[in-house]
Amino acid sequence: MSSWRSRFLATVVVASIALTAACTSAVPGEPVAAPGAEEKGKKAKSKIDAGTGPVAGLGELNARREVDPCALFPKDAQDTLGKKVNYIGGKTKIDTCTFGIEVWAGEPPKDPAERAPNLGVVDIALNSGMVYVDEERASTGDRGPMTKESRDDFEVYSSQEPRICTRRALFKDKSMIEVEVTTRNNSTQADPCESAETVLSSALKVMRAGQITRRSVPANSLVNVDACGLVTPDVVTAVTGGTPPRHQGPSIRNCLWTLDPKSTKTDALLVDVVLTSAVNNEMVKSVPPIGGRPAAAVQLPFSAPGMPGTCTIEVSHIPFETQLPGKKEALSVMSITQAGPEAACQKARAGAELLASKMPAM
């Protein structure tokens, strides 16, 4: 997994991804950018006509929490690209919809149930939960810088490697969507950027038609909750030892409290809504319940020289059955501190204990 460079906010993102190990699946043989791959990616064509006209975006921050990312790539669009199969990637997040698609070699068959020549399987992650923080963050992908181009009234950031292609769209209202496509294995012949452009075109078509679907979730779902709004000064002090200001995090559901978001030398609190990590692996351990709810500590099993201690406490909530049976929603409280990993877990738990009472009833 690559670094987000030196900016603290970006470091928090990497820590969050690394610590939720159960939600991460590396691509065998980490791809390295090939000469000319970026230019080839720019020339990829979509199998779907995105239409023309303005794209308003996904709306205000609060409204975006209810957007159903799966509705941006509906079944008819999936059938145009290929045949749906099981997804085996690791992008399991509340605001990310995932698809496995066996890509048609040519035009789709008249009956999608029929077998047809195919180019192998791609795994697709469509994320509607990103937030524009600044240009540096928007133009930096998981594996390095992205190129930027203007299309109609929005911007598109792109990157391509031998088996991975990413398209990240930024709209006028500062909402974003990201499409990441990974070929299933080295024998897959499908162009990941063609698939990425197809999924992006599908999303644009849906948005232009004003047909953005809102998720139907239980009234007590954390999907409906402004988790950042639950955080009171006593929570911030319990984790950071002070009252640093709040900063918008990199997703619609998380916020960061720190004196300096560009520094790794200040203690910080990150609150988020996540899906529960798989317990009993090297990084995720069960801890005593918090507020009568199951809880887990998520922490890297090593510490890098010069880096602060980090620890996340996940407080479990209700099942998240929209797309991932077996997963549960959770309130995530991360502590980043110079006092080391053990202190980080103590601080994170102190914050989680205060916040648990403010969560919706199970």
Automatic annotation (TrEMBL):
Signal peptide: 1-21
Pfam annotation, one family: DUF3558
Claim: Signal is one of the keywords in the record: yes
Keywords in alphabetical order: Signal
Protein name according to UniProt: DUF3558 domain-containing protein
Organism from which the protein derives: Allokutzneria multivorans
Upper lineage: Bacteria, Bacillati, Actinomycetota, Actinomycetes, Pseudonocardiales
